Amino acid sequence: MAMHREAPSPPSLASRLSGSLAVADAAVNDVHDRLNRAIPWLWTPLAVPSAAHRLGTAEHVLYGVHAGLGLGVAAAVLPSPLRRPALLVGALVAAGSWAVFTGAWDRRADGAQADDAAR
Known about the structure:
By secondary structure, this protein is mainly α. Helix content is 66%, strand content 0%. It has helices at residues 13-17, 25-38, 57-77, 80-118. The longest helix is centred in the C-terminal third of the chain and has 39 residues, at 80-118. It is elongated and about 60 Å long.
């Protein structure tokens, strides 16, 4: 009797955007794991996500909330001449870090799921 295997999910957007940086995935995931152990409350009101699964919509929304709060604080405290360039740089850094950290996380989860499927 043949076993039915699900087709692998296509790479996530973050995984595709940061694919050229995949050589650094182990280091990036190590930083992510250490942060999750040291300051798990950053995921509040969610639970710390499982490394065996891709990040979901709620985690992406929470990341956006954190980035938005950081940009809002910057906008409130910076003098007018610096505000616009700082917010632009901050938004680019937030988007870049989302792609790198989420891409590495998703590639690890995809690898774990592929390993499970191969067993």
